[in-house]
Specification:
The protein has about 350 residues and is α/β, with parallel strands linked by helices. The chain contains 15 helices and twelve strands. It binds nicotinamide-adenine-dinucleotide and magnesium ion (MG).
Length: about 350
């Protein structure tokens, strides 16, 4: 496999699955955690390594090290591996996703921003999502029964129990204090704002087609997805909050081995469901409109990435992230007509959000 983002939260779990099942890692791509990357090189013996920044080239213990996006695209084309795991974060993951599909390779896709920004312009049949909710939906949807609605769950993120008026004082450290999952910085912030769940609704829309999609908070993150069937039955996917299960399926398609210990319902005891409200999660206001015109995901994604950068730099508040995204969504009404438009709109929106800060 070709693993993009090997030192991140998903990347590390993907390597654990690779090791458990003896899968060969041909290429490792990572950002700037060089110490961890060197350990991974020693263990998995890839034939090529790529890092984000040229200054790190000499610190990598490998004879074939390259740098930057072009090198990533080239290695996707030249490697004999037919599986690309995209665990990069943000819009930077889009070109590698497109390249892998163009080369006829299978993409195990954690980089949901690829789908959010450009789902309309990619061959979905080549994609296996690495996201617990979509894995749950896929797992449940193994029947010919007519479906009424697909539902995904949210943890509620760092501020789900905060008094609403206090959220405006939230710091970066507060936003990173996720109740149920240990993940990378950006997705943890997206969980706190509920942007992550909106992205996942869009992701579901591209993966499973038109239909009714919604989300609800389940505070223990034990249920990941539910399907309401037309007959009045609802089925639920229950598993521990651990990404190794969706990763194992995305890498191997099927497994009959134990990936996680089963959930002990007596230990869980009780479950609590809550509504996702606009008062606590202002971004939820644009959800219907976005799902109605899903190609506008590129605007929301670009505005969100630019606003998160500003928040991390201390230039805007946590709630300003949602305000900036809603504003950009209203300002940029156009839909991309092709993939070139996606890159163009992405640039325009980022520039606009930064210029308003
Ligand atoms: P992370 O920040 O922990 O890891 C990102 C990885 O990408 C790191 O290895 C980093 O070094 C690498 N990287 C970043 N920029 C790079 C660049 N320019 N060149 C090369 N490498 C670069 O993020 P994560 O939590 O693992 O999330 C990755 C993706 O998976 C995101 O799109 C996220 O939304 C999605 N996802 C994550 C989880 C989770 O549990 N963490 C669950 C579902 C989906
Ligand atoms: Mg998810």
């Amino acid at each position: 496999m070709i693993l993009l983002g090997s030192t991140g939260s998903i990347g590390v779990n993907a390597l654990a699955i690779a090791q458990q099942f003896g899968l060969h890692v041909d290429v490792l791509v990572a950002g700037r955690n060089i110490a961890l990357l060197n350990q991974q090189i020693q263990k998995h013996k890839p034939s090529v390594v790529i890092v984000a920044d040229g200054v790190d080239l000499s610190s990598i213990d490998h004879p074939r090290v390259f740098q930057g996006e072009e090198a990533i695209l080239e290695v996707i084309a030249s490697s004999s591996s037919m599986l690309v795991i995209n665990a990069l974060v943000g819009f930077a993951g889009l070109r590698p996703t497109l390249k892998a599909i163009e080369c006829g390779k299978r993409v195990a896709l954690a980089n949901k921003e690829s789908l959010v920004a450009a789902g309309a312009f990619m061959d979905i049949s080549k994609i296996q999502p690495i996201d617990s909710e979509h894995f749950g939906l896929w797992y449940l949807n193994n029947s010919s029964r007519p479906i009424q609605r697909m539902l995904i769950t949210a943890s509620g993120g760092a501020f789900r129990d905060w008094p609403i008026e206090k959220i405006q004082e939230a710091t970066l450290k507060d936003a990173l204090n996720h109740p149920n999952w240990s993940m990378g910085q950006k997705i943890t912030i997206d969980s706190a704002s509920m942007m992550n769940k909106m992205f996942e609704l869009l992701e579901a829309r591209w993966l499973f087609g038109e239909g009714e999609y919604d989300a609800v908070i389940e505070t223990k993150s034990i249920i990941h997805a539910l399907i309401d069937y037309c007959d009045g039955s609802t089925t639920a996917h229950i598993a521990r909050a651990n990404m190794q299960l969706p990763i194992a399926y995305a890498l191997m398609g099927q497994t009959d081995q134990k990936i996680l210990p089963s959930v002990n319902l007596l230990e869980v005891g009780s479950l609590e469901f809550r509504e996702i409200t606009v008062e606590r999660y202002p971004i939820w206001e644009i959800r219907q409109e976005l799902l109605h015109r899903p190609k506008r995901g590129v605007v929301v994604n670009a505005a969100n990435e630019a606003a998160i950068e500003l928040f991390v730099e201390g230039k805007i508040s946590f709630l300003d992230i949602s305000k900036q995204v809603i504003h950009a969504f209203e300002h940029f009404d156009e839909e991309p007509k092709n993939i070139e438009d996606v890159f163009h709109i992405d640039r325009e929106v980022r520039h606009y959000v930064r210029s308003r800060a």
